[in-house]
Design a protein that fits this description.
The structure holds two protein chains of two kinds. Chain A is α+β, with helices and mostly antiparallel strands. Chain A contains eight helices and 14 strands. By secondary structure, chain B is of the alpha/beta class. Helices cover about 45% and strands about 10% of the residues of chain B. The two termini of chain B are about 25 Å apart. Classes of the chains: A alpha+beta, B alpha/beta.
Chain lengths: ~350, ~450
């Protein structure tokens, strides 16, 4: 009898083997393993067709192209758009060249991105903030003037703060793929490129609010929520309603008893898989509008969990710890470390005990 | 005199017209290919010739053609990349202006070989008068039965379209060109898929440079082996070089690959040396995107042998002591040239022309330009020099398309070979910032 099962490809990422279907990208294969093995992604957004390849945050080294042709790839490749081959060996957090490049990408992305996290509505759930925290340097070498833009209202619910935009194109793909009337896109080129609307038009279709959810930084913000609260003071709750337009599956963000924001639900990679309509997002802000499902599961390493657990119960990213250990320069104070009970760092910098997606949260 | 293939009849009066071109042996390659050869045989001849893409990358043209996917019921396209806009490169412009039928003939032969029934010549929009010349040539060829339906009664149809570009340098990158040709913003595409599999309108497409396509007529007339006999090693045939800068006789020259660089600069046949009273300081050998070399390295290899005008010889030693033939934009600079200012000028171009899609190129090109501007105007410090090297390293190889490399290489190589000049700009800010200020310290001048 013929076996109809598709042949699976074996891929090794940072020493961990995983089996995936042909056509899977390196990023998807790494995400299947989970944890810090998955490269960061600022522009790739799985539900949006054609996204990826732009920010270069997910560059990895392919140490072996395939079992048939085990030659390494000459350059780093964007894992979000590179399909796997059977027997491919990928180095992500285990390769110093990749980590060095990531530092560079963080630096590039922050060249024109203001560090206004203290007043930015995206703080605490900002992909760039997380990326910079995990992979970047604490300082910048950029001395020149940064580009600045006036804030613009692009429709009744959305404000565009172009100064923070990192040109990931996610909102453009969203408007192109899930709405009928796309009126915005990228204007200009190089570092003068900007997201803009066609002759100051408003974005006013039923699904326009989704561009807020896909924005990895605080460039597109919800005017009904701006400056109302910090995300770590709110309580996210999963809820749904019978909506004739969309799936109606949302996260309600509570401050006390009040729903101050409604967003689509995001998965562990911070991606929305079911987009929601503007009615659910902007008009239904009473608990009575919704069927409550329960508290949203939030990783304990997330800032959203801050102050909700005892400090010793918060799980910090293993990768961040490893990187910090790598960059830590011990001061030789002349004392005998073994007598002080200080453990030496292992010579293998990143190899040991990376967390697995299936590891239970503590 | 060296062998001429493309510019053999360039001085014949009226060669831009069909009748004169035909009288000089034009369109015989079309007749030979369509009447006596199969498309596969044409591809084979091009493979045998060993001709490499003349746009800059130097990829073997026959091999590129053989990668073309041939699915049933899907059209195939040939696109001629005439978006020549690299600073220092102006050979295609010259060829199209003076002998347009050579390109048209090459397009017909190449389209026949690839099975394309509609082909495009994507010309930089500023060259409107060249576009009109090409359109006139196409009309003439069509009137004589060499284009359109049932060419020479063979049953083969070909429509040739001249498409003006919007004037963005990035549209010279093949996938950005295809996006632009489709009427979209000229952003490079992620690869794979490569154009040979999914190119114009998601159909298999070959994108070739003007010079490459124009070469096919001679190859078909004389055979691939005859072409391969010209040149040196894997650098076969002839190459158009657009020579500019402080040369006594700048211009577009056709050279047999393998000519010594020294001869090209100093021989009467070509550039006739550096302008009187001056000495050669540096050369950009293949258009502004390739690494710059000081005079001693451009003339000699590391082992002391003469450096030749060929893909292999120019790149000998990697980027430590070599460069690239690139598109053949040969820019010579004498000792009055300020390398820092020149590097800043190149960086300014790449900053302006970056499409802005990927972050290293979008942000990095602007950063380099600003730091170089600071150095040039006497506001830099020693850290800036290392910073430039590091930023160039972070851009190189990490971008969607080669524009990142094109921006990074000139900066990195200028610092590698002329670091003392950058340092002089830091240590002598008042002097360096004066108009026309040039470092005249110890350096190898020839």
């Amino acid at each position: 009898m013929e076996d109809n099962k598709p042949q699976l490809f074996k891929v090794t990422v940072d020493g961990i083997e995983v089996e995936v279907e042909p056509g899977t990208t390196i990023l998807q294969a790494a995400r299947k393993i989970g944890g810090d093995v998955a490269p960061p992604a600022m522009c790739y957004y799985q539900p949006l067709k054609g996204s990826g390849g732009k920010c270069r945050a997910c560059l990895v080294r392919v140490a072996a192209g395939s079992a048939k042709d085990p030659r390494p790839m000459p350059k780093l490749v964007a894992s979000c758009i590179t399909p796997v081959q059977d027997g491919m060996v990928v180095e992500n957090t285990t390769n110093p060249q990749v980590l060095e490049m990531r530092k560079g990408i963080v630096e590039f992305l922050l060249l024109n991105h203001p560090l206004d996290c203290p007043v930015c509505d995206q703080a605490g759930e900002c992909d760039l903030q997380n990326f910079a925290y995990n992979h970047g340097l604490a300082t910048t070498r950029y001395e020149e003037d940064r580009r600045e833009f006036e804030k613009r209202d692009i429709g009744p619910f959305i404000q565009l703060h172009m100064t923070r935009c990192i040109l990931c194109y996610r909102c453009v793909y969203t408007a192109d793929q899930i709405t009928e009337k796309r009126v915005h896109g990228v204007l200009g080129r190089g570092d003068a490129a900007e997201i803009g609307t066609y002759i100051e038009k408003a974005i006013d279709n039923d699904f326009s609010g989704n561009v807020i959810d896909v924005c990895p930084v605080g460039a597109l913000t919800d005017k009904t929520y701006r400056f109302k609260n910090r995300v770590w003071f709110t309580k996210p709750v999963d809820a749904h309603r019978d909506c004739p337009t969309c799936s109606g599956k949302v996260t309600l963000w509570y401050r006390g008893e009040e729903v101050i924001r409604v967003t689509a639900r995001k998965n562990e990679w911070n991606e929305v898989t079911e987009f929601i309509c503007n009615t659910c997002r902007f008009d239904k802000k009473k608990t009575s509008d919704w069927v409550i499902e329960g508290a949203t599961k939030v990783a304990r390493s997330s800032v959203i969990s801050a102050n909700k657990y005892r400090r010793d119960a918060v799980k910090t990213s293993q990768f961040a710890l490893n990187l910090a250990a790598e960059e830590y320069t011990p001061v030789d104070d002349g004392r005998n470390k073994s007598q002080l009970g200080i453990q030496q760092l292992p010579p293998e910098r990143f190899a040991p005990a990376l967390p697995h997606a299936n590891d239970p949260e503590p | 005199m060296g062998k001429k293939i493309l510019l053999e009849h360039i001085d014949v009066p009226g060669i831009e017209t069909f009748d004169v071109y035909r009288k000089m042996g034009g369109y015989t390659a079309v007749e030979k290919a369509i009447k006596t050869m199969t498309p596969e045989a044409v591809v084979e001849e091009v493979k045998k010739s060993g001709v490499r893409g003349r746009g800059g990358a130097g990829f073997p043209m026959g091999m590129k053609w053989s990668f073309l996917a041939k699915p049933e019921g899907v059209p195939r396209y040939l696109v001629c990349n005439a978006d020549e806009s690299e600073p220092g490169t102006f050979k295609d412009h010259y060829l199209m202006k003076h002998i347009p039928h050579l390109l048209i003939e090459g397009m017909i032969v190449s389209s026949f070989a690839l099975g394309a029934n509609k082909s495009f010549i994507y010309v930089r929009g500023e060259l409107m008068y060249v576009i009109r010349i090409l359109e006139k040539a196409i009309e003439e060829a069509k009137a004589k039965g060499f284009l359109g339906k049932n060419i020479l009664g063979s049953g083969y149809d070909l429509e040739l379209v001249v498409q003006p570009g919007g004037g963005a340098y990035i549209c010279g990158e093949e996938t950005a060109l295809l996006e632009s040709l489709e009427g979209k913003r000229g952003n490079p595409r992620n690869k794979p898929p490569f154009p040979a599999v999914k190119g114009l309108y998601q159909s298999p497409t070959v994108v070739n440079n003007v010079e490459s396509i124009a070469t096919t007529a001679w190859i078909i007339n004389n055979g691939g082996e005859a072409y391969a006999a010209i040149g040196v090693g894997r650098s076969t045939g002839t190459k158009l070089i657009s020579a500019s800068g402080h040369l006594n006789r700048p211009g577009v020259y056709e050279i047999e690959l393998g000519v010594p660089v020294e001869d090209f600069i100093y021989a009467d046949e070509w550039c006739r040396g550096i302008r009187p009273g001056h000495k050669l300081k540096a050369v950009v050998a293949g258009g502004s995107s390739v690494p710059i070399l000081p005079a001693d390295l451009i003339l000699k290899l590391a082992n002391g042998e003469k450096r030749l005008m060929s893909y292999e010889s120019l790149s000998d030693g990697g980027f430590a002591t070599g460069t690239m033939l690139g598109s053949g934009g040969f820019i010579a600079m004498d000792e009055t040239s300020c390398i820092v200012r020149n590097t800043w000028n190149f960086a300014r171009f790449y900053h302006h022309e970056s499409c802005g899609q990927c972050s290293p190129c979008r942000e990095g090109t602007g950063w380099m330009e600003k730091v170089l501007h600071r150095l040039e105007y006497g506001h830099g410090n020693m850290h800036d020099i290392d910073l430039l090297v590091d930023v160039a390293k972070k851009i190189e190889g990490n971008t969607i398309c080669p524009l990142g490399d094109a921006a990074a290489w000139p900066v990195a190589s200028a610092i590698r070979h002329f670091r003392e000049e950058f340092e002089w700009h830091v240590t002598n800010p008042h002097e360096a910032s004066q108009p026309g200020a040039v470092y005249r310290g110890e350096m190898a001048l020839v």
